[in-house]
Design a protein that fits this description.
mainly alpha, flat, about 80 residues, single chain
């Protein structure tokens, strides 16, 4: 049974994944992407605002992972320090 799957199902699964992961561009679209990579446009106000929101969110997440000042922390033995 396993050999049947390996010989018949696996190649088809690989083709499906390959097709889903690959983006094929026309020559015109390829040139457009290359031009944009070499000469990126200025960021729009919406992009700038999104970047700021992301930075605030990231700072909030970082702050929430920090322990409050004065919180007791157990050492590696599971005991609180004296």
């Amino acid at each position: 049974m396993a050999s049947f799957i390996m010989e018949n199902v696996l190649p088809t699964a690989r083709q499906i994944v390959d097709h889903a992961e690959r983006i094929v561009l026309s020559e015109r679209d390829t040139m457009r992407v290359l031009v944009l990579l070499e000469n990126p446009p200025k960021p729009t106000p919406a992009l700038i605002a999104a970047t700021r929101r992301r930075a605030v969110r990231d700072m909030t997440l970082m702050d929430s992972r920090e322990k409050p000042i004065g919180q007791q922390v157990e050492d590696s033995s599971g005991c609180l320090p004296r």
